[in-house]
Amino acid sequence: MNLKIAVLSGDGIGPEVVLQAKKALYAIGVVFDHEFVFEDALIGAVAIEKTGKPLPEQTLNLCLNTDAVLFGTVGDLKQDGNSNTHLSPIQGLLKLRQALGLYANIRPIKPYKDLLDLSPIKRKIIEDTDFVIFREISGGSYFSEKKINEQGTLASDLCEYSDEEIIRITHLAFRTAQKRRKKVTLVDKASILETSRLWRKIVKEISENYPDVAVDFLYVDNAAMQIIINPKQFDVILTENLFGDILSDEASVITGAIGLLPSASLGNSSALFEPIHGSFPEAKRKNIANPIASILSAAMLLDHFGLQEESRRVYESVEKAIELNVVTADLNPYSKFGTNEVGDFITNYILSKDDLYFKSDNVYIGQSTIV
């Protein structure tokens, strides 16, 4: 398979972690005889500095004419406080989502057995947790009308959803549930919000087309609690933009580190893959950022294009790195391994998992793994 991939590394630690994802994809290409062509472009704060726009036309044109987008992070301490919201780095990502017609953000939540004790939640509660959050990302209060009066004392954000926006992601969530444990949970606030009542009405109607999938409903406040006290009850969580943004970040505590979680954003003809963590500008160029979320985003990219065996190879390589404690300091404060070293290990394991290139005794004492 030949794929052209737009690489938008963005700001902060983005370039460092995305580099490791590119290395992993290169290794997959070598082992499985695929060709991945990468083309880099600007977005976020670095784009504002160089072009005056968070999403330059050249970047958008590239993304519209590639098979997929491999995304890093956006955000900069100098730009994040910009009072001109049109020039904030996050606007680059929001505009890109709109332009590509991305409507479903997918975030898997599955802790690693070797890292269960990292989570602040008890092991017995989170062990065997495995669910995925489907967050609608094209509508809601993020993209609807916004107002503030001249005095800056009154503001509003309209939350608006159409039936079409709800229908397309609901079908996607149910089809995914059919391949998993056959359960969908809609998270809403139908007791108060008219948009939530529309969500619930449409989901009930669509559920009749999937008789093999159980469906239940939770108010968002209860869902936030249930994710912490009983996460194993969930299979596929479906929700709107704002609720999904909050709940998916909350769910990251189950894994113990936000640097482990990838995501995919899908449209009818476009797809973007990114880690869920922020730009962490304080760690920029220090070789301490965890690259695993970015590498697993590359695995989700492979899976999206039907390359399941290739995707499993990446997951297996990440699991081996975690098993052997080849991780960054956020997962092990005594680790001597940095972003590049973790990425190198995973890449080399993809290339030759039966011929490890490191001395295992050295792994545990944090010395160089290269033979």
TrEMBL record:
One GO location term (cellular component): cytosol
Required co-factors: Mn(2+); Mg(2+)
Keyword Amino-acid biosynthesis among record annotations: yes
SMART domains reported for this sequence: Iso_dh
Enzyme class per UniProt: oxidoreductase
Domain Isopropylmalate dehydrogenase-like: 4-346
Pfam families reported for this sequence: Iso_dh
GO molecular function per UniProt: 3-isopropylmalate dehydrogenase activity; metal ion binding
GO biological process, one term: L-leucine biosynthetic process
Sorted UniProt keywords: Amino-acid biosynthesis, Branched-chain amino acid biosynthesis, Leucine biosynthesis, Magnesium, Manganese, Metal-binding, NAD, Oxidoreductase
E.C. number(s) listed in UniProt: 1.1.1.85
Record-stated family: Belongs to the isocitrate and isopropylmalate dehydrogenases family. LeuB type 1 subfamily.
Quaternary structure and partners: Homodimer.
Matches recorded under PANTHER family: 3-ISOPROPYLMALATE DEHYDROGENASE
Record NCBIfam families: leuB
Protein name (database record): 3-isopropylmalate dehydrogenase
